[in-house]
Amino acid sequence: MGSNNRKIFLAAIPDDIRSELNRLSRHNRIYDGLTFIAVFTSFFFLMWFSDYFYNNFLSAILFIVIQGFVLHTVAQMIHEYLVHDHFLVKYLKYPIVALVPLSPTQYNKIHIAHHKYFPNSPEDPDRAVNLPRSRLERILAFTFLNDLLLVPRRAKFYGEPQPPVQFTPSEKKHIQFELSLFIVLVLLAIILALVNHPVLLQGWLLPLIFGLPLFTGLRVFAEHSHVDESQPFGCGTNIRVPAILSITPYVVLFGEGHIVHHYYPHMPWYNCKKACDLLRPWMANASQKNRLFYSIWRWVQDGPHVNLSAR
Asked: How many structural domains is the chain composed of?
């Protein structure tokens, strides 16, 4: 269970390092607010000027990728602020959830159970629902088609009793309402495009469909592929966070940053790089270091949860 690995992990870390990690786990509300302002300003700025990027095919592709990354950052804020830090939930939940097809009420229970049961437990709901199982699914994990393939599996999962995840009637109503906000915005984007106002379609919906899945696929790989679940750092993929990602909220979802996130789930993204630097000597000794593109190739070939050190 994850809790047993946490005890082993904490026992291996010196007291002064643990104290510093606890200090780094405290949120700075000014930084939190600036994060929201920066992300939403970037999103609306790009969306408003999206016409300039759709003049030719290459610039349109570039725009879709960049805006897809911004939208993935919006999803990351749901992950960090609406699940692991409840201070901002009642103020900013609905403006966020309208932009991505994700219900915080649903995601909260699924994700907290994932932290509790991963690794070494088949009761981990993320493993039961979301992990691509076939080679084709692992290739399609970098496209929106993968989400379509997962719909029947998720529907079956949510329709069955699950030991770690059970939704009350009230929670089910919240889930329906939160997802309906996203559906309304999709319909609005289509209607506006039909009357020659394609700003939502170009600036939001197309990047959501074609851009965001690129980073979601990378996240699925970079979080939990090629891990040795028998050791305490087996809760994440031991890949060093690229410098360009370490200055974005994506750091929490990538490689060693996600290892830190599992043991310190309240760690804000802007302190995650410092925490990685503190823990790197123990991560280096406890798990195999992976190379990014080689590991992606092996993941596509062999699937997630492969211990490369045993090969």
From this structure: 1
